[in-house]
Amino acid sequence: MADVRPKPNRESDDDGRRERGQLILVTGLAIAVMLVALVLLLNTVIYTQNLATRGAGIDDSGAVSYRQEVVSGVGGVVDAENREGYDSRAKVERNVTAAIGRFDDLTAGYRAERATVARVETDSVSFTDGTLLYQTNASRTLTSDGGSDDWTLAENVGEGGGPGVRHVTVTVSRENLSTSVSTAFAVRTRTASDEWRVHLYDDGSAVAVAVQNASESSPHRVCSTSGPEATVDLTAGTVNGTRCPALDWATGVSAPYDLAFENGTEATGTYGVTVAKPPSDGDVRSGNFAGPDAEESPRAVPAVYDAEFDVHFETSDLSFHTTVRVARGEPA
User: CA 151, CA 147: separation in Å to the nearest integer?
Assistant: First the structure.
């Protein structure tokens, strides 16, 4: 029988082999590209982990400690110079700047001995103008300069944003306090619709502090301290340095508000209030105070409300640069 099978087509076989070869080549190239991408991805992950590990190993406690030291130190410098009672804004700012420079020299020298660069950049210092309202005569009642029993220290406090007041402290003698909360000396913040009061009185065994928040109809006793006198920091919420949680500045009263004293004849002592308004501002009731050149209390003098500046801290492992604002005793 005759063989009727078709003869092999050599040309078709060659084409098939070429196609298979091309397919293998393309597949190989694809695998190679995938391997290269995988290697790059792994290298990126390893590099990122190395950076994270090195970053986590850097001790930044020195920079944090230095920043806290600067805030505390410069805050003390500002308040000390404010209390000098300069008669112009230029004088108080010039002396505050010089005092910050002296503070910086001391701290920088100490750090340099430990191979650390730590500086307050004094050429970057800027200030917010303010007024210090204060009394230093501890035997005087807490009335105005003219003797008013109920009187206003400043109006529209906090206008334009921010607390607008800081470091509101009162030190009173127990023996001269009222024994009734209803007639006691009080510090008040008030708007047209809301009011917050703190009363200081003698409850028979201690200096007592009573608070009336804006939502309350009467004051309630929140803390007390024994001894012949008490220092109440109203913006920090402390009595003789001990935290009094219910003493929370201006609770329920939104800025701007007026700051006033009531029943000033029912207490003797000292106080200090720094507001973020210059003495020339009509909202500062300068007429209720003696001027900067006066010897008597109470007085209103130009002051630095806050200071802002850059600090730099650098070691062999860390470089830290930031802007710091200092307003000691500002309520949260």
Answer: 9
